[in-house]
Amino acid sequence: QVQLVESGGGLVQPGDSLRLSCAASGRTFSRNDMGWFRQTPGKEREFVAAIRWIDGSTYYTDSVKGRFTISRDNTKNTVSLQMNSLKPEDTAVYYCAARAGSAWAYWGQGTQVTVSS
Questions:
Q1: Nearest to residue 94, comparing CAs of 31, 46, 43?
Q2: Cα–Cα distance for residue pair 111/92, rounded to 1 Å
Q3: How far apart are CA 20 and CA 36, in angstroms?
Q4: 113 and 24 in contact (C-beta within 8 Å)?
Q5: Beta bridge partners of 116
Q6: N or C: which end of the chain has fewer CB within 10 A?
Q7: What pLDDT digit, counting tens, does each position of 23-63 carry?
Q8: Whole-angstrom distance, CA of residue 26 vs CA of residue 28
């Protein structure tokens, strides 16, 4: 059974940092692109960041560029999202995902990030 399990969410103040982690089990994802998405109530899930398996290229949505960093450790089958200078608008449930072919086929259950003073 394939599982992606996120951890590291929580309640922080504006300007603080958080590091989200995603542990994969059931298969290796070393040859899959990995990504992070987020969703707030009443809105569609949105792309946050991705990292390609083939060359480690990274991609970010404009609102997090310069603040968030995605990384992966294929030896541990994990992907992380370092989030700095957090803003209230970063508040959301964050999801880890793995791409298979052209689709984001595998999803975690999500971890809540709340940025509030």
A1: 46
A2: 8
A3: 10
A4: no
A5: none
A6: N
A7: 998 888 888 999 999 999 999 999 999 999 999 999 999 99
A8: 7
